[in-house]
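User: I'm preparing a small set of examples for a lab meeting where we compare how different chains pack in three dimensions. I only have the primary sequence for this one, and I'd like the structure in token form so I can line it up with the others. Please keep the answer compact; I'll paste it straight into my notes.
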Amino acid sequence: MSAPVVVLADPFGSVQDVRAGLGPVQAEVRAADAIPAGSGVVALLVGPETPLTEAHLDALPDLRIVAATSAGTDHIPVDAVTARGAWVTSTAGYCTDEVADHTIALVLNLLRGVGTLDAAVRAGRWDVREAAPRRIAGSVLGVVGVGATGQAVAQRATALGMRVLTYPGQDLHELLAEVDVVSLHVSQRPGAPPVLDAAAIAHLRPGAYVVNTARGGVLDTTALGDALRSGRIAGAALDVLPIEPPPADDPVRTFPRTILTPHAAWYSAEAAVRPYVWAGAAVAAVLAGREPDRVVGRP
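Assistant: Understood. Below is the structure token output for the 299-residue chain.
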């Protein structure tokens, strides 16, 4: 009898890391550029760059688990997978510390004016007033979204002496009117409008900053650009964008007083490995007849 086939459909993943997660379970692990079809495939490991459709599922009669190699599962038709008798898992939590650390780095950069002052010195100017640094202790951080990452950001900010307001927890518009920095940590639901839309941005206190390390679609970047260009808000730091990478003519590239990083908040050498080991362990549990960790959908 041939070994069950585990397919890694994630260009960033390593077959070796998946095998490490599988442990003693005997399975054939294959890397694939696209979702395969045919019998024998018992597990799919899919990243957010690999959308999974019901047609794919129909072509995989032996499928027992779809393991997302990401915290989110919006690229997976969860109900369709479970209706066909398979599990769905995620790797939620694999980069909580990394995203929280990156968020705080961006918050500190904005409040202390590090990037702007660096650019000014390199351009031959030596004047702290180019971006007068603000005091961190006592500054107010609004955390929108209080899942694991939002909580981790709040803990770090509190340790620095910042006052933290959260949503949910109080009215969003009231929070925005009070904060020095608002940081987004909410999921993006398909078809849902941005959480920080034009109306919400209009409630930000003058001179506030916006940080987004969540998903590009939770922030109205057009409205953000207008607020930045008008000078009503002091700056922004964006690790995620509606279109990634942004095309050459994307206005976000020219937003004033804005820090851009290339969807890097999740990354560390450890976090680059963890999703594939965890996904492999989820597959191992299912093949051994056990419930896997981080279940999103049950058969």
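A couple of notes for your slides: The mean pLDDT is 96. Residues 5-94+269-297 form a domain with the Rossmann fold fold (CATH 3.40.50.720).

User: Perfect, thanks.
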